[in-house]
Write a structure and sequence with these properties.
By secondary structure, the chain is α+β, with helices and mostly antiparallel strands. Helix content is 66%, strand content 9%.
């Protein structure tokens, strides 16, 4: 491939990455994962520039290009290693629901990367990974495959974490999140395949496409998810109910549950809004566990209200599920010195009940029943 063609192929991905990175400031909330994603994007841009500089100096005579190639070779290999490790940490954090980047285990998991880095830093003297021959071309050293092997190890483990996490996920939302993350690893694999078959420099372009895939997934999640509880938000609920109404002719049973945390205002007034937010998160987590293995759509309706739409259950089965849900919420430990248990009022409406088929009608019916139950609790 000519130098001009190589520059063109690398120029477009680099510009795309810089634009994406700039856009993350406005579109993504500030978090550890966002920082990792932005760091990955910057590293990829620098690696693309590094590859371009290497190509422009390969085979050129003189001491200057020789020194430059030595330095660029170390940086390029180190950058690849750092990208692979950060990618692994990102997936680990998602798979462990926000706890993957904390603690001593991160340093333990970094041991292969640290060993690879030490070998790279010693390469100018040991020539273990590569060396520059007399005509300024790279030649493999005895440990040439160590860095690619360590990087591939991190990427394969990250893919397996995402793939098996998706298979074991308790909710459709979680399966989708981890499944899309696992699918991102197919892009660079496809790029390498194209590169081998057609002798095209495609691996990096496909890798940039993988980053774009992850970025768009995060962006979509922030548009459709409630920031406090991680459940679907009101906007996504409206969209989902519209989709259900479009398929209302299907015979599958569908149950609408509207839930409200009892005495939630008292929690806020007595213990403050920070505690109130924590209570909502705990209730949401309990709902995820309760409905995780069912065909269920969970959303925060607003304030302390939640909506769950369950498919494929009879009224008798739903009565058991509702009772179990209330018991699970009762069992939530939300503070050592709190004088009362958490409880939740639930209204239920089945599709077709009282001739009602539309989602908004069924939600209104569930709302009426929920408030009757809530009033009975308050009158005690």
């Amino acid at each position: 491939m000519s130098t001009a063609a190589f520059l063109q192929i690398n120029f477009i991905p680099a510009i795309a990455l810089l634009m994406m990175r700039h856009n993350t400031r406005q579109t993504l909330s500030f978090s550890w994962r966002t920082r990792v994603l932005r760091t990955e994007m910057l590293l990829f841009v620098l690696l693309l520039l590094c590859r371009t500089a290497i190509l422009c100096n390969l085979g050129k005579g003189g001491f200057g290009p020789r020194i430059l190639l030595k330095g660029l070779g170390v940086w390029y290999a180190f950058g690849l290693l750092a990208c692979a490790y950060l990618c692994f940490l990102y997936v680990l954090d998602v798979a462990q629901d926000g706890n993957g980047q904390r603690g001593i285990k991160c340093w333990i998991l970094a041991i292969p990367a640290l060993i690879g880095s030490a070998v790279l830093l010693s390469n100018p003297w040991t020539k273990a990974v590569y060396f520059i021959n007399m005509v300024n071309y790279y030649k493999k050293g005895p440990a040439a495959y160590l860095i690619p092997a360590v990087g591939m190890l991190y990427l394969v483990v990250a893919f397996l974490l995402a793939a098996f996490g998706a298979l074991r996920a308790g909710s459709a939302q979680r399966r989708g999140e981890l499944g899309k993350l696992a699918a991102a690893f197919l892009f660079p694999a496809a790029g390498i395949l194209v590169e081998k078959i057609f002798s095209m420099d495609a691996a990096w372009a496909f890798t940039v496409a993988a980053l774009l895939w992850v970025y768009l997934g995060i962006q979509k999640g922030q548009v459709t998810q409630d920031g406090l509880t991680g459940l679907n938000n009101r906007r996504r609920l409206d969209q989902y109910m519209w989709e259900l109404d479009e398929r209302s002719g299907e015979r599958e049973t569908c149950c609408y549950l509207l839930m409200d945390v009892n005495k939630f205002k008292k929690v806020n007034d007595t213990y403050g809004h920070v505690t109130g937010d924590e209570v909502l998160r705990l209730v949401a987590e309990q709902l995820k566990r309760t409905f995780g293995n069912m065909q269920a759509f969970l959303a925060r309706y607003g304030g302390d209200e939640f909506v769950v739409i369950v498919k494929g259950k009879t009224q008798d089965e739903m009565d058991v599920i509702i009772h179990q849900t209330q018991e699970n919420v009762n069992a939530i430990a939300w503070g050592a010195d709190t004088p009362w248990q958490l409880s939740i009022s639930i209204g239920c409406a089945m599709r077709g009940e009282q001739g009602k088929q539309k989602s908004h009608e069924l939600l209104e019916l569930a709302d009426e029943r929920m408030y009757r139950q809530k009033k009975g609790i308050q009158d005690r």
